[in-house]
User: What shape does this take?
Amino acid sequence: MKRHPALIPLSHDHHDALVVARGLILGRATAPRSDWPPDRRAQVDRVTAFFSETLRAHFEAEEQSVYPVVAQGVTDGAAMVSDLIAEHEQIRKHVRDLETDPTSALDQRLPALGKLLESHIRTEERVLFEAMQEELGPAELEAVGAALARLPPRGPSCRISSEPV
Ligand SMILES: [Fe+2]
Ligand SMILES: [Fe+2]
Assistant: This one.
């Protein structure tokens, strides 16, 4: 389904997050011209910077402006939202742990974070956004878009978005 304009800014962030997730899972770049670092320790800095610049605000935007509408207006929305919030918390914890200890067991911890991030984004794109577009009315979707537009701009994630997923 074509993405509703209200949700496109979040979908752009999702694209960037998937590029990061693939790099974390594979441990190497996914495209020839990518600047994703092959070194695991450098990947820690990339993912923590991506979190500070983009993902932290993205999660807050979803929790403030998207999830409450879904919990109210989409079939089984409350259960879906509680799972998604739990995943945000898990991802935040992984990032905090990497900030505290950026060196141990990176070959396990970075792919684990990548898989969590990838599956979270795929659920939002394939299940959450699809359900919103099917079940919410145009006025409700416009209201979500307007609420998202009032939030502070997210960081320069375009730095990593030139690479196709
Ligand atoms: Fe999310
Ligand atoms: Fe998201």
